[in-house]
Design goal:
about 400 residues, Arginase, Chain A, eight-stranded parallel beta sheet, two-stranded antiparallel sheet, 12 helices, 10 strands
């Protein structure tokens, strides 16, 4: 192929597409900053800069919300937004290293470096998506069941208000109450794609529902779920599962390593859930593994929920997590997998197990932030959420 036959470079196509997106939100932010933050000192030549920081810049200044999006203090108004970031600072379900209660704060803090403009994805989240930060759920430290009730009611409120819930933990015990806040409002079955290094499907851990048990309880109420051989009387639990979350629509990806998978493996076999190990992903490739997961999760389902445990990424890249296990995904693989899954649309998503006390240079928090941004950006491009058509000029 001669130099003149290479066709248009992909990067230039993305830049041209981005050039068609309006700057309305940026202009509004500048005007708001000048009104609320006052005009800058006389020596400042750029008169779009305000005296007090009231926008995205400087990234290290200001009061952090996720992506510096508006803080929806009156959560009764959350339905005025298309997406709501919700922090769930709970780590009482942790079985090894604590600290994930600080995950939402850390993800918010590092998110300040991003302005939502992606050349890779040809998307401008700031312009194409109305997003807010709804703050944190009032969790009950030391009480898993009461916290589950709080979380489910909060997630249900956000979802039924019409906002897409982005749920940031916290440990992975939250998977169950998070899905419990969404599934009852969906007229049909709900599939779950769970990316992790651990199966998280045993019935109990140390006599409690912990971060190793969410998918046992989520699928436990379905008619196809038979009692596990180790099941005992759990009548003290508030409920026994979700009737429209079939085990066959649960797909767990990235599982492997030397810890924590024995009890959950038995349940997965009995209930017919799918487990794609890291070896499976290596053999299938990221694209092939994503296609397999989507086929299984979406079969006869009306919606799919994404549960992303940050420990699925190799701890060399994401050390700040409760139960690190070497041999996981690298960041590029992880983000490609998230984008492929999100293309079909989601009913909600969670990112869990970010433990800042064990992090290095905010690497883990930043990857958690990128998982969220890449999922949202993909759904905007695919027109599953957002309002791209309103802000995109016609192609000339």
């Amino acid at each position: 192929m001669s130099n003149g036959d290479h066709g248009e470079f992909r990067g230039s196509r993305n830049l041209k597409r981005l050039a068609r997106i309006s700057r309305t939100k940026q202009d509004e932010e500048i005007a708001r900053g000048l009104e609320l933050g006052l005009e800058a000192a006389d020596s400042i030549n750029d008169r779009t800069i305000s005296l007090f920081s009231r926008g995205h810049q400087p990234a290290f200044a200001g009061i952090n919300t996720f992506m510096k999006s508006p803080y929806c203090e009156d959560v009764r108004r959350v339905g005025e937004y298309e997406v709501a970031f919700v922090g769930i600072p709970f780590d009482t379900g942790t079985t090894y290293r604590p600290g994930t209660r600080f995950g939402p704060q850390a993800v918010r803090r590092i998110s300040a470096i991003y302005d939502g403009y992606s050349v890779d994805g040809a998307v401008d989240l700031f312009e194409e998506l109305d997003m807010c930060d709804a703050g944190d759920v009032f969790v009950i430290p030391g009480n898993i069941e009461k916290t589950f009730d709080q979380v489910t009611k909060a997630v249900s409120h956000v979802y039924t208000s019409g906002a897409f819930p982005v749920l940031c933990g916290g440990d992975h015990s939250l998977g169950y109450p998070n899905v419990r806040g969404i599934a009852p409002h969906i007229d049909g079955n709900v599939g779950i794609i769970h990316v992790d290094r651990h199966i998280d499907m045993q019935d109990m851990d140390m006599d409690e529902r912990m971060h190793t048990t969410p998918w046992f309880w989520t699928t436990h109420g379905h008619e196809s779920a038979e009692l596990h051989s180790s099941h005992r009387d759990h009548s003290h639990m508030h409920d026994v599962g979700l009737s429209n979350c079939p085990p066959k629509n649960l797909v767990q990806m990235g599982i492997g390593g030397w810890y924590g998978s024995r009890p959950g493996s038995a349940v997965a076999r009995e209930r017919g859930s799918s487990v794609l190990t890291m070896t499976d992903i290596e053999e299938l490739g990221i694209k092939g593994a994503a296609e397999r997961a989507l086929e299984l999760a979406w079969k006869d389902a009306k919606a799919v929920f994404l549960s992303y445990d940050i420990d699925s990424i190799d701890p060399g890249f994401a050390p700040g997590t409760g139960t690190p296990e070497p041999g996981g995904l690298n960041p590029r693989e992880a983000l490609e997998l998230v984008r492929l899954i999100a293309r079909e649309g989601l009913c909600g998503m969670e990112v869990v197990e970010v433990s800042p006390p064990y992090d290095v240079n905010d690497n883990t928090s930043q990857l958690a932030c990128r998982v969220i941004l890449d999922a949202l950006g993909t759904m905007v491009v695919e027109r599953k959420i957002g309002h791209r058509d309103r802000v995109m000029k016609p192609e000339s």
